[in-house]
Design brief:
By secondary structure, the protein is an alpha/beta fold. It is 32% helix and 13% strand.
């Protein structure tokens, strides 16, 4: 291995260790579900709670940018997004919410259904017809399942995924005892579902992948390649898996991806527009 690559790997490993140490300190603060944002619907307590926010009486209540839902990875919680959340709120995202799914979850599909219920609740509460989602690792895969398989593309404008194993990762083979880990293996039933046709999917997908991500094996598994999806793959250099939701340059890239998310015409899928290094 070239000296420059060894040096980059050592730096990335040291950063991963520092981030892990800090995250272990913050982890207890993220175990309890966060308090929800103030309700937009409170301005009109007589409004029909079943009304569609995009057409109902609260359509005019919605203001500002789309709400952002943050979804953590395997054996993690919302504390992983402390820094990213700060960046988003500082740049005008006044409704940013994190979803904790249970550590006892054993089926990615169940977590995707929970995400769908949370999205509906946010739409009803804020008056926004659509949300954006940022998912780290397994969280990105859960959100992708919701969008592709549970009709979430009518609710999610942009889905940003950070180090997500789109085609499966072979890391830590001894962890296969956990059902969620098995669902993240190459060739799993869930990944075969996601590889299937998804005609007319309206969500815009942005997938950040790192050339030094030691959890994604091979690292290219975090690239999303699907002929029916509007996908933008962004290559990150010099950082590992845990740094993706923390690194300031990645945070800036996420913010840019969300701000650039406009309507996607069904069938107008651009595929791979070319990868870019952001760190």
């Amino acid at each position: 291995m070239e000296f420059s690559k060894v040096t980059a790997l050592m730096k990335a490993t040291a950063l991963e260790f520092a981030i892990l140490t800090g995250h272990l300190v913050l982890y207890p603060s993220g175990i309890v579900a966060e308090r929800l944002s103030p309700t937009a619907r409170a301005a009109d307590p007589s409004a029909d709670p079943s009304a569609d926010p995009s057409t109902g009486p609260d359509a005019t209540i919605a203001s500002g940018l789309r709400p952002v839902v943050l979804l953590h990875g395997f054996v993690d919680n919302r504390s992983v997004f402390v820094l990213l959340r700060r960046v988003l709120t500082r740049h005008g995202r006044d409704c940013v919410e994190s979803l904790n799914y249970s550590p006892l979850t054993c089926d990615l599909r169940s977590a995707a259904e929970l995400l769908g219920r949370r999205v509906e609740e946010i739409r009803a509460r804020t008056g926004h017809a659509e949300v954006d989602i940022v998912g780290h690792s397994l969280g990105g895969l859960i959100a992708r399942y919701y969008v592709q398989r549970l009709g979430g593309d009518t609710r999610v404008r942009t889905l940003v995924m950070l180090g997500t194993p789109h085609s499966g990762t072979t890391v830590a083979p001894l962890a296969d005892a956990h059902p969620l880990v098995r669902q993240m293996r190459p060739g799993s039933a869930v990944l075969r579902e996601l590889a299937g046709p998804a005609p007319g999917c309206r969500t815009r997908f942005v997938s950040f992948w790192s050339d030094l991500d030691q959890v994604m094996v091979p690292v290219e598994t975090a690239r999303l390649d699907h002929p029916d999806l509007d996908v933008h793959n962004i290559r990150v250099s010099g950082i590992g898996h845990l740094a993706l939701p923390v690194h300031p340059t990645v945070a800036a890239g996420v913010l840019g991806a969300l701000d650039a998310g406009g309507p996607v015409a069904p069938g107008a899928h651009g595929g791979e527009p070319g990868a870019a290094s952001v760190a």
